[in-house]
Amino acid sequence: MVSCGSTIRENGTYFVNNGYPEPFEGTGSCQATLLKANQDVCQFRLEFAQLNLVGPEEVNHICNTDQFIVSGGNPVPTICGNSMGNHMYIDAGAGIDNPITVSVVTSGSSFQRNWKIRVLQIPCTSLNRAENGCLQYFTGVAGQILSFNYDPTTGAQLSNQDYGICIRAERNFCGIQYTQCPDPTAVNNLTQSFTLSGNSRSRVPAMVGTSGANSCQADYLIIPMASNVGRPITGATTTVDRICGGVLSAEVSTLPSSVKTNVKPFDLWFHTDGVEAPNDSDNKGFCLNYIQLPCSSTLS
Questions:
Q1: pLDDT of the residue at 236
Q2: 6-129 and 138-294 in the same fold
Q3: Got the DSSP string for the chain?
Q4: PROSITE patterns per the record (predicted)?
Q5: Would the pTM count as exceeding 0.85?
Q6: How far apart are CA 56 and CA 54, in angstroms?
Q7: Burial label, 155 (beta-carbon count in 10 A; 0-12, 13-18, 19+)
Q8: What would you report as the CA-atom Rg of the chain, rounded to the nearest whole angstrom?
Q9: Is the domain 138-294 a CATH 2.60.120.290 member?
Q10: What percent of the chain stands above pLDDT 70?
Q11: Is the predicted pLDDT of residue 230 greater than 90, yes or no?
């Protein structure tokens, strides 16, 4: 394990806060420099075994107090709050000495922060190498995707996010299905596991598309050519790309629905702007369970 001011070349090294495993309550900037172990490394994977920082401010959900910043590779949004268990893929560049800087900036009042970030080096020939443009990359037939700082009770959707999420298509699987996670904290079926826009203290329908009264202009998740699972086929199949609002559905509805798509690669895109108030309030982000659908399936 290494801490502030270190250079990391060895695969699997942990970057931790000063005094770890005790929490860090001070302020300042703690940085580590990532360098390739050899020329064959194309990416760094940052695994957040722990990342607990001060969350965003409450009005527009901007990370003003604490910040986790990555510089020197592909564009990476600034994050804060709690993202334990999440990860990022960072482009390592073409040269052997292309440094990537990982910084944790802390300020404001005392807070028991901690971080333990595993740095993995991904070879260019690895099956676990992410596609270009993917900040997050998932493998396996089934899995779970969370936006940064998601929690159904204490989380807050972060502003100024703009990144790709990719799932590797496994052999003999031709489609993928997404379902919002169960929310054990839900009261009166008011689930918080997919709340991207609107006032999440009240019931907000799913909104879709780019035009009309119920469209997604500011904060949204792109799922290419998504349609609801189990929708009766009464004519041409209706698909959408942008989904936002208070539940996951490819149609304007207050009832959540699993959605599916046959578009490959299995890529998502998450975008939030820098403004929440007054139209958006208390949004948590999203938690999605995915499962790939076999090519032999009717995908209906």
A1: 53
A2: yes
A3: -B-TTEEE-STTEEEE-TTTTS-B---EEEEEEE--SSTTEEEEEEEEEEEE-----TTT----S-EEEEESSS----B-SB-TT-EEEEE--SSTT--EEEEEEE-SS---BEEEEEEEEEETT-TTPPPTT-SEEE-SSEEEEE-TT--TTT--PPSS-EEEEEEPPPTTEEEEEEEEPP-TT-BTTB--SEE-SSBTTS---EEESSSSTT--SSSEEEEEEEEETT---SSSPP-EEEEEESS--SSS-SS---EEE--SSEEEEEE--S--TTT-BS--EEEEEEEEEETTS---
A4: CUB
A5: yes
A6: 7
A7: buried
A8: 20
A9: yes
A10: 97
A11: no
Q: Beta partners for 50?
A: 116
Q: Which amino acid is located at 76 in the chain?
A: V
Q: Six-digit token pair at 36? A: 């390739």
Those residues whose C-beta lies under 8 Å from the C-beta of residue 30, and which sit 6 or more positions away, are 3, 4, 17, 18, 103, 104, 105, 106
6-129 CATH: 2.60.120.290
Are 209 and 240 in contact by the 8 Å Cβ rule? The answer is yes
pLDDT tens for residues 109-123?
A: 889 999 999 999 999
The residue ranges of every structural domain in the chain are 6-129, 138-294
